[in-house]
């Protein structure tokens, strides 16, 4: 049983969220917490990044924060609700840093089937699996 579980959400794999939450609840210690993390990589990996204003980024963060709060309220029982974080940066680096800083003992990530591009570049989930200092569960 794990006391600090980190769920990085990216809203691209929403069809897997039920499986992710089910796994988290099964593995969560009776006194454990499930924490949510969203990493906004728009300024890192997007060609239009220089055009993003602080106001636009702030509005996007507020919308994501509301979506995460709604998700937490609907999916995670009150006794297991942890914290919500929105961070900006490289996805896998940010997940690893947050897990280390918050002393997560389990990361549960959704992942799609790999495409040709992930064989060459590697996916976020594979990089997290390789470098995390805690257990990692990848849900498909």
Automatic annotation (TrEMBL):
Pfam families: Usp
InterPro entries to which the protein is assigned, alphabetical: Rossmann-like_a/b/a_fold, Universal_stress_UspA, UspA
Domain UspA span(s) in chain numbering: 1-140
Family designation: Belongs to the universal stress protein A family.
Protein's recorded name: Universal stress protein
Organism whose genome encodes this protein: Zobellella taiwanensis
């Amino acid at each position: 049983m794990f006391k600090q579980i980190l769920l990085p959400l990216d809203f691209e794999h929403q069809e897997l969220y039920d499986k992710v939450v089910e796994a988290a609840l099964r593995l969560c210690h009776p006194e454990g917490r499930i924490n949510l993390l969203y990493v906004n990589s728009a300024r890192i990996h997007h060609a239009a990044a220089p055009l993003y204003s602080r106001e636009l980024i702030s509005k996007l963060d507020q919308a994501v924060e509301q979506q995460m709060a709604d998700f937490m309220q609907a999916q995670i029982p009150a006794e297991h609700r942890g914290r919500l974080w929105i961070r900006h940066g490289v996805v896998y680096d940010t997940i690893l840093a947050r897990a280390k800083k918050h002393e997560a003992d389990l990361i549960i990530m959704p992942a799609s089937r790999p495409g040709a591009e992930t064989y060459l570049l590697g996916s976020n989930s594979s990089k997290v699996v390789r470098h995390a200092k805690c257990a990692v569960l990848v849900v498909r």
